[in-house]
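note to self — DONT lose this again. spent like an hour looking for the file last time. sequence + predicted structure for the chain T wanted, 450 res
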Amino acid sequence: MGCIVPAGTESGQPCVRRGCSRPVGECMKERAWRPLGAAAHGAWQSTMHAEVIAIGDELTSGQRLDTNSRWMASELGVLGIPVTFHTTVPDTMEAGVEAFRLAAGRADLVVVTGGLGPTADDLTRDVLAAVAGVPLDLSEEALATVESRFARRGAPMPESNRRQALFPRGSRSIPNPDGTAPGIDIDIDRPGGRCRIFALPGVPSEMKRMWAGTVESALLGMMPDRATIVQRRIKCFGAGESAIEAMLPDLVRRGRDPLVGITAHEATITLRIAARGRDEAECLAKIAPTAATIRDCLGVIAYGVEDDEVEDATLVAVAAAGGSVASVEIGTAGRVATLLAQAAARRAIGDVFRGGIVLPHGGLVDPGALAERARSECGAAVGLGVGAVRPAHDGRQAIDIAIATAAGTTVTEHTLGGGPELAASRGAKTAVNLVRLRAIDGAGRREPTP
């Protein structure tokens, strides 16, 4: 495996991979890395190194994408704990024991997701007991918690769910507020020390809540220089990941405090600012100028914070302008209406979204006429029309997006990219975002600075 070369490193300096002594000049051809979501080699780097293990036949077979490990590595990176290995394991004892023994021998910390359900192929607890060389004991407290969940539903607990109250002897339970599968926290002895393993359910919502409620604080307690870590997210839409990074003045770089990470998902870009300090007030004081710089540089591209989606920002902008919006779509197959309806439910914003009409793909239709139809039939101030998928001038495919108001109609071509599902999702978000930009035009929208 080649050296890790930070972008911009001069020839002759050492590689940053732990244990590698080769000068950078010998491996400049290796792919440069940069501190994006995980920021694993930032200024806060811990002496601990972690491994992330995902368990499930559906993952090793490719039937399902492992998003848990990506999320977990990012969270560990914010704590300054670099992840050195990712492992995916099928639902068998042999593979599980081999993977866990390897991980415990080469990492100080292992975080596992999956395999804690009640069925016969949920083997994480059995694997942990085998690796630790201890039996499984029934926790009466954990069993009572599982039973109470079924009792609240008015349903009898299947006998198989008793397995979820079994723990390797000497391990600790990680409470699960949202499900029947508690997590497992166990120390595994190894030559020269111990490896600590946290096993969490594979259900993302349960895993994330258990991480925030128990695991994160336990990891901070393991660090000799324990400190408070605060993070804030700024959400962006309207430019790609590399373009946004280029617009920011040296913010996404190794060793910066606060760290700024950048991730992309279906054309939505998230900038995460993470600061470390004595307390929350100190962290927020570090974050504030960086957040202000990001907003100044990106202008309307930065549409919200934390869990805001672009459709949320769109309805807020339309409501602030005293307007309403409706849609008629063909090429996005109902995705525009779905986004706006979900945002209206989340935000509880009156009748700003007046409704959406989905038409079959029956040939090319004037998108301006669709937008006008949305206005007239739904009684909305703003009509959004999405035309059928058509060939673009460069040989790719495109959709036309029209916005109609009392002042007139504008039409924008959007070129589709990625697979069919991803292309349609991006197209729908782009259409919704154009409504947002139109709504804030009257307030004198601020363009990003060069």
